Amino acid sequence: MKPIIRMAGAGTAVLTASALLAACGGGGTTEAGDSCSGQKITVGITSSSSDAPLYVAQRKGYFKKQGLTVTFQPFDSAAKMIAPLGSGQLDVGAGAPSAGFYNAVSRGLPLRIVADKGSMPKDYGYMPVMVRKALVDSGKVKTAADLKGLRVAEPAKATATSSTLAAYLQGGGLKYNDVQHEYIGFAQHVVAFQNGAIDASLTTEPSATVAEKAGVAVRIATPPDFYDKQQLAVLLYNGKFAERKNIGTCFMTAYLQGARDYMAAFDEGKLVEGAKGDEIVKVVTSATGLKPAIYSASVPNYVDPNGAVNIAGLKRDYAFFKQQGLLQGDVDVAKLVDPSFAKAAVAKLGDS
Fold this sequence. Notes:
- The protein has two domains: 10-120 and 230-349, D-Maltodextrin-Binding Protein, domain 2; 129-221, Periplasmic binding protein-like II (D-Maltodextrin-Binding Protein, domain 2).
- It starts with 9 loop residues before the first helix and ends with a helix.
- Helix 1 (10-23) packs across helix 11 (245-263), helix 1 packs across helix 16 and helix 11 packs across helix 16.
- Helices cover 40% and strands 17% of the residues.
- The chain has helices at residues 10-23, 52-59, 62-65, 82-87, 99-106, 133-137, 160-170, 189-194, 207-213, 239-243, 245-263, 275-288, 292-297, 311-323, 333-336, 340-349; strands spanning 39-45, 68-74, 92-95, 111-120, 129-132, 151-154, 180-183, 200-202, 217-221, 230-238, 266-267, 270-271.
- It is globular.
- It is α/β, with parallel strands linked by helices.
């Protein structure tokens, strides 16, 4: 299942993809000084399981085969990558579009959304609605309507998660501000449930599975049922890096190879048995420190094997930020998405 994507005109897309493919050594000659060989790239990561395509591309040598030396720089949150991306300290970032991201763009920071990194179609709802087990067992909370006035955790203010919560509450006839908002990092949600500091949450994997196994929370809803294909995480290029078309395409080619290997390890949201599944578990748990049993039991994020971005979903979240008064200026969301790198990589790798 692939997220919706809006592309440029077909003629332009073919020309752009062909040009970038040639620059990346896909059957054409490269211009002097434009080779990807020996290029160093710094990539911001959140050290989460949704960074899996990057970990796979690194571990399996896909970046190296493109001539690239890639260094990962961990951040506590995607929001903290924005300034380093804007200043050029980071070439590539990986995280969730937020009001802060759009405000940075409206102030002139040259950032581009170039590929999917985490979306939530059917079977891949990796950020479920969790409710404290005592409230579920007592029957106090069964549906979205029952959350009125309760304490609901999100990772931070004005993120894509806020839009997810608004969509869920709407199904119960509630508005976003009909609940009490608690801003707590995903990794701390389990402890917050344990000590009774929160009543419900939107929690990403693997923390959601950890909370379930600890017996402190129960998942009562999954985003694909009320907000299908939400574009929760994306791959970002800074403006200067995006101008280096051939280098950006070489990076994207390796990234999509990693994404395809990652997606091949799952079938309808379930880890497949055998070498493909075992490989991804080993790569991701080695990189993140997660326990293999927890990762294997977690619901995975979807990553489009062709890098397609759900622009409609980005626009929906942007509209939510605007309605909440969180935006400082206007941004054309569709123009922020540059699919040319992914198209060029797909032209080299083949459609998937």
